Amino acid sequence: MHDFLPTAYFEGKFIPFTEANISIATHALHYGTGAFGGLRGTINPENPHQVLLFRLERHCQRLSNSAKYLHYDLPADKIEIIIKDFVSKNKPTQPFYIRPFVYTSDLGVAPRLHNIEKNFFVYGLNMGDYLSADGVSCRISSWYRQEDRSLPLRGKISGAYITSALAKTEAVDSGFDEAILMNSQGKVCEATGMNIFMVRNDKLITPGVNQDVLEGITRDSVMTIAKDLGIEVEQREIDKTELFIADEMFLCGTAAKVTPIKQVENYDLPQEKKITQSIKDKLTAINEYKVPEYQDWITVIDV
């Protein structure tokens, strides 16, 4: 049972979450013509009356860019103001997740983006670990990641996530925790809602943005942190067989944070995960406002 925050932003105003409802005829529900964001908030360990939001500006800009694919002009600074107000009104007391969503809100049956009403809402829920912090097992999905020439994969377009849903259920039904998707060229792409990294010979490697991956904000953060820790980072194509002999692997994303991978298919990975743990520890400290040189990544809201 989800523990939703009591107040939502819906159709231009703040109302109780339970009253923020859409029609069964809503256009986006039928055609996947929506785009979403997701960001985490934590309570400042040093001050229970302060909420800390991770990389708010980047999240708002990415959602604004996603809205452009829907021919919807939604400035990032407007999204930012609404999310700050949303947090102030809800006054959360435990770690939580914010879901902003843009969508075609007309009641219609023709798939299109022109001459149609668009709208924007925000809701949230209390959230701890999305995946097991101890690590997960992954299978290679039989489903392939879409191509950028058929979908704008740099946006979090809601309709695109049918592939993630199919892959996730396939993985769980076959005894694994998560799925790894390949792209149409047969190269490693990403998981069902997370980017993927591996370590080989003390080098951190991840698929490049030309491999049909989402340009993840946590992904970008991990690469920045790794470089600051003196870890060499390489963006390149990754073959499936490399995963089986990797020294370390992990998934990362807003919900997943940094989650170690223990097993890929029937191959167990080494238990020692030195680089994964160092990046995870640094990211946790940054989120808790404990690293001065990264404080510009954190937005502080008094509640």
Keywords:
303 residues, alpha+beta, D-amino Acid Aminotransferase, Chain A, domain 1, D-amino Acid Aminotransferase, Chain A, domain 2, 2 domains, eight-stranded antiparallel β-sheet, 30% strand
Shape: globular
Q: In the CATH classification, which architecture of the largest domain applies?
A: Alpha-Beta Barrel
> Would you identify the CATH H-level superfamily of the largest domain?
D-amino Acid Aminotransferase, subunit A, domain 2
How many domain units?
2
Global Rg:
19 Å
Report how far the terminal alpha carbons are from each other: 26 Å
How many H/I helical runs? Answer: 7
- The CATH topology of the largest domain turns out to be D-amino Acid Aminotransferase, Chain A, domain 2
> What CATH first level of the largest domain would be assigned?
Alpha Beta
Let me know the largest β-sheet.
Answer: 9 strands, mixed
- Fraction of residues in β-strands: 25-35%
Structural class: alpha+beta
The sequence of SSEs as H and E is EEHEEEHHEEEHEEEEHEHEEEHE
The total count of strands amounts to 17
The percentage helix is 25-40%
